[in-house]
Amino acid sequence: VQLVESGGGSVQAGGALRVSCAFSGFTYDDYAILWFRQAPGRARERVSCIATSAGIYGSTYYTDVAKGRFTISSDKDKNMVYMQMDGLEPADTGVYYCAAVWPLNRLGCYPDLITDYWGHGIQVTVSS
Questions:
Q1: Among 24, 25, 23, residue whose Cα is nearest residue 35
Q2: Splitting the chain (128 residues) into consecutive groups of 10 residues, what average pLDDT does each group show?
Q3: Residue-wise DSSP of the chain
């Protein structure tokens, strides 16, 4: 399984960016793709999730840092997951990682999913 992020960059506060995650290697559709981020000097934190199954938690999930501002989506034909980030703030600055859970065992976006695979990350910088 490989995950490759793209689309980061720099933007002023209030602006928008879309980060993308190209994935490959799943041999069957039972996976979740998650976005995490890590700000300088801080622990990595979960941001959002999208899954091929809903389970009891749903097929998408957002943590409080993302609710109302970020939107996760997928294009299965292209093996891509996107996260549109609007209303960016300087506190959103960090390295953004996509990660995967596979097999998912049809759990959906269970909040405490343990990830199996990681991308290398991409920098997002929001200036004030």
A1: 23
A2: 96 98 94 96 96 90 96 96 98 98 91 93 97
A3: -EEEEE--EEEETT--EEEEEEEE--SSS--EEEEEEE-TTS--EEEEEEES--TTT-SEEE-TTTTTTEEEEEETTTTEEEEEE-S--GGG-EEEEEEEESS-TT--S-TTPPP-EE---EEEEEE-
Pairing of strands 122-127, 9-12: parallel
Q: Each residue of 29-48: b (16+ CB within 10 Å) or e?
A: ebbbbbbbbeeeeeeeebbb
Q: What is the pLDDT of residue 57?
A: 86
pLDDT tens digits, one per residue of 51-82 = 998 888 899 999 999 999 999 999 999 999 99
C-beta separation of 48 from 111 below 8 A: no
Q: Which two tokens stand for residue 126?
A: 């929001």
User: Distance between CA 76 and CA 122 in Å, rounded?
Assistant: 22
